[in-house]
Amino acid sequence: MAKPSLKQDSKGASAFSRFEWLLAGRYLRSRKREAGVSVIAGFSFVGIMLGVAALIIVMSVMNGFRTELLSRILGVNGHVIVMPIDQPLSDYDEVAQRIDQVPGVAYSMPLVQGQILSQGMGTSSSGALVKGVSEASLKSLTPVSDNISQGSIENFDGGEGVAIGARLAERLGLRIEDRITLISPEGDVTPLGTTPRVKSYPVDAIFEIGLSEYDAAYVYMPLSEAQLFFNSEGETQSVEVFVDDPDNVADLQPAIEAAAQRPVYSVTWQSQNQSFFSALQVERNVMFIILTLIVLVAALNIISGLFMLVKGKGRDIAILRTMGATRGSIMRIFFITGASIGVSGTIAGFVLGLLFCLNIESIRAFFSWLSGVDLFNSEIYFLSELPAEVQASEVTLVVLMAIGLSFLATILPSWQASRLDPVEALRYE
């Protein structure tokens, strides 16, 4: 039987047939005459890989930052803060019980708080925020009660001891059963003026939330002791309300105010932290745009590399056309050549980005050890560990965007190759 010709094969072959893939594979392999094309293809592959990996890593870290900060901030601070108008909040227990009956409210917590200066056993001192709460309320704050590193908060209401953050304890050189001295400027009124109030308390517990700002500043005190310390006997400053769904807290705000059954005004966590989380969102969007440019530049390299390949393969294209290869077949050959670089680079970047995110804390620790510099200072970034949260929807968007840009980059040079006139290409051969 006679061997079928290329002309017969090409006419009968379907789109993206075997011979198109074979020719595209040959064009991707390096030859001495096409060293420049191979170098550009290599740079395009590396550029797309690094761009995709960088996008996945940065977006995951930004997501991790937002989730960790949000969970810790909302875990220890009320989602709605209810404060009295005109009259002191002396009926705080009744108000809290009525608010607890509102559907969607997890629990409420009467609170007395104030800024103080704290001192340890030596001469060291640090500013701190005292929060006076009941034992039941403190146990409901799971970021605190579940992260007690030393001591205990059992019988918290029955004693005079306090619970302090781990970083504050480290800064003041305190351990369990040591005494911390608290100094408040709002003390006793005397004929000579107001004198600061100074009192020492035993340290019953040390907690570590993982948010350095809180671990270095928060002091939890029994509610009755805080009322005495801040001259607020029989009353509280506010009632902090925690809800089941913090994202929809604004819908519950009118019902919470109505349940208080007295003149109050309230603020939500969203209004208190709006500028902070808005800045995170803006930074996240800007980083996405900047890193997308890396993928775009790599895609432009694919265009230049394919144009060089088309120019160098003009004679081959002309011969294929005279043997019966269609314009569509030529276009598909060069499309496969360029798209293969983009798809393989995207897959490699996807794998690299996921591996980096899954081992990001180990990688950070390694580079910190290698450079001798703390690359993630918790005092600056608030968190004690570098977080990363990979979201499938965002990773899918990044992968599809990179593949889409790679496909678009191959269309023009592939179209130019298909429009090549065989007669003009072979005229001077």
From TrEMBL:
ABC3 transporter permease C-terminal domain segment(s): 288-422
Membrane topology designation: Multi-pass membrane protein
Keyword entries, A-Z: Cell membrane, Membrane, Transmembrane, Transmembrane helix, Transport
Primary location: membrane
Keyword set includes NADP: no
GO biological process, one term: lipoprotein transport
Transmembrane parts of this sequence: 35-62, 286-310, 330-356, 395-415
Domain MacB-like periplasmic core positions: 45-258
Compartments, as annotated in UniProt: Cell membrane
GO CC annotation, single: plasma membrane protein complex
Top-level taxonomic group: Bacteria
Family label: Belongs to the ABC-4 integral membrane protein family. LolC/E subfamily.
PANTHER family named in the record: LIPOPROTEIN-RELEASING SYSTEM TRANSMEMBRANE PROTEIN LOLE
Record protein name field: Uncharacterized protein
